[in-house]
Specification:
- The complex is a heterodimer of chains A (294) and B (233).
- Helices cover 71% and strands 3% of the residues of chain A.
- With 294 residues, chain A is mainly alpha-helical.
- In chain A, helix 1 packs across helix 9 and helix 2 crosses helix 8.
- Chain B has 233 residues and is of the alpha/beta class.
- In chain B, 31% of the residues lie in helices and 27% in strands.
- Chain B has a six-stranded mixed β-sheet, sandwiched between helices. A four-stranded antiparallel β-sheet of chain B has the order 2-1-4-5, covered by helices on one side.
- In chain B, strand 1 and strand 2 form a beta hairpin.
- Classes of the chains: A mainly alpha (294), B alpha/beta (233).
- At the A-B interface, helix 6 and helix 7 of A face helix 2 of B.
Chain lengths: 294, 233
């Protein structure tokens, strides 16, 4: 069976690949959106922290024999704690300054982290096996579905929806949303906003760490794996609307699919399609598809 | 009895600008006190300095006998203070009810949501509307209502009658009297002297970041000339 002269299996295969990439985009842009919303910081270190999550999973397995499932919990926690240290020691001094200072600091942190990992492990990727429970593939009749890729899409959608639920539907989320608008007033109500900011940064980067662990068996674990992704993720955040939670999730998944389909229909454009969409969105809706005009 | 609020030699700055210069006043438990003064006299800054919302501040701010000058803002709130700012600070990303439920409980004895909806029926009808879609009067009611839920017994109300229709202002006046009868301590900043005059037990007049005059409600008639000079009323 063919569609526009393309075999259906190839089309569905690219669609799945797009969804997998979209899952990473969604999780990373969600973390960026949460951090930007409350801290007003453009966290350039997000890609490096995603890489750190993947490396922690690899190190856990190779140095300590800790399996994938344990590291799926432990690595994001460690990355989150590392993020808390970054926030408490460096970022917190920059909130009153222009966005550019936060961007420069986190860019510097990115270079340092990548440099450290590169000096120990080089730039060639480290292999990471798919956990035995998720190895192999399932024949759906119309396509062969690799189990691990299905898991990546499922896990990221669950994490994104849980994050969305907490932020949009709970008291804690109301604190976060209100803190995004007027942190001083929220503090005047008796809420410890500085602590909330620290934990939000920790949570945002833990999401990046979680995405890194999920990515480890799909991609090679390499010091540069984050920098390859982060520019696209920034474009996703801009298209979705800076600070928009739902925008980040839907745009991340949607753009992953569009990118995948572009690989089928016009491969030459696949590396730039996201940026073309970003340019069009900025011209039509400068605040992004789901962002609010200020 | 411990004073609800006791301020001594309070000085406050916004960046390099020195706004409050040695402010001294106190408020007894259950009292309603009004800070009067022209725009820029330092009344709003005084309320903000009590909560630590200004930049640097010096002096002494005692709330129910507890020194708060070095405390973080969120800790000061937990001493039992509810703050209603001049700009109302209704959050656009929250519904009216989410705005109402936002402040955490500070002390036991706050109003229940049902009591608040009885007091402000409009808020009940519009509970699911986006906070900033409410009318000016409804937003003002919401801004006051949300601090009544917290159990705070010392209320700092900044220009709550500003820009509102007379009928809403009258409703707010009735609310202040009701709160006063329930033992709330209230510090109001007011430009609307007609609104504040029948409500307050005592008045402080501010000018250039200092208290320049104070008198009790009973002395109001004899102070008309002074008020005319200081406030231009």
């Amino acid at each position: 069976m063919e569609l526009f002269g393309i075999p259906m299996s190839a089309l569905l295969g690219q669609l799945l690949l797009g969804l997998v990439n979209g899952s990473f985009y969604a999780m990373l842009s969600l973390g960026l959106a949460v951090i930007f919303g409350l801290l007003n910081v453009i966290n350039f270190a997000h890609g490096a922290l995603y890489m750190m999550g993947a490396f922690l999973a690899w190190m856990g397995l190779n140095y300590f024999g800790i399996n994938y499932w344990v590291m799926l919990i432990v690595a994001p926690i460690l990355v989150g704690l590392f993020g808390i240290i970054i926030e408490k020691t460096m970022l917190q001094w920059l909130y009153r300054l222009d966005h550019l200072y936060g961007l420069l600091l986190t860019f510097g942190i990115t270079l340092m982290l990548e440099g450290i990992f590169r000096s120990f492990y080089g730039v060639s990727g480290q292999p990471f096996s798919v956990p035995s429970q998720l190895s192999g593939a399932t024949d759906l009749g119309f396509m062969i579905l690799p189990n691990y890729r299905a898991w990546v899409v499922f896990a990221s959608i669950v994490v994104c929806l849980m994050t969305w639920f907490v932020i949009e539907k709970t008291r804690l989320g109301a604190y976060l949303r209100a803190g995004t608008e007027n942190p001083k007033m929220v503090e005047a109500f008796g809420i410890n906003v500085p602590l909330m900011v620290t934990l939000t940064y920790g949570f945002g980067v833990a999401l990046a760490g979680f995405a890194g662990v999920l990515a480890a068996p799909v991609l090679q674990v390499s010091p540069l794996m984050g920098s390859n992704l982060i520019i696209v993720v920034f474009a996703v955040v801009v298209i979705g609307g800076m600070g928009s939670i739902l925008g980040s999730i839907l745009t991340g998944l949607g753009l992953g699919v569009i990118e995948g389909l572009t690989k089928v229909f016009y491969p030459e454009l696949s590396a730039t399609v996201v940026f073309i969409i970003m340019a069009i969105v900025l011209l039509i809706r400068p605040a992004g598809l789901f962002g609010r005009e200020k | 009895m411990t004073k609800a609020l006791e301020i001594k030699h309070l000085q406050a700055w916004y960046g390099e600008s020195h706004i409050l210069h040695d402010v001294n006043f106190s408020v007894e438990q259950g009292e309603v006190v009004t800070l009067l003064g022209r725009n820029g006299a330092g009344r709003t800054t005084t309320l903000r300095a009590i909560l630590g919302l200004t930049g640097r501040r010096e002096g002494s701010v005692k709330i129910n006998g507890v020194e708060a000058i070095t405390m973080a803002t969120h800790r000061i709130a937990h001493l039992g203070i509810g703050y209603c700012p001049e700009e109302r600070a209704i959050f656009s990303s929250l519904s009216a009810e989410e705005n109402l439920m936002l402040p955490p409980t500070l002390k036991p004895g706050g109003m229940s949501v049902e009591q608040i909806y009885d007091m402000f029926p409009n808020l009940s009808e519009r509970r699911h509307s986006q906070g900033t879609r409410l009318s000016g009067g409804e937003q003002q009611m919401l801004a006051v209502a949300r601090i009544l839920r917290t159990g705070a017994k010392l209320l700092l109300l900044d220009e709550i009658s500003e820009g509102l229709a007379p009928v809403i202002v009258q409703a707010l006046a009735r609310m202040i009297l009701s709160l006063k009868s329930q033992g709330y301590t209230i510090v109001m900043v007011e430009q609307n002297f007609r609104f504040a005059a029948p409500l307050a037990d005592r008045f402080y007049v501010m000018e250039h970041g200092q208290i320049v005059e104070q008198f009790a409600a009973a002395e109001l008639a004899s102070k008309t000339a002074v008020l005319n000079e200081l406030l231009g009323v």
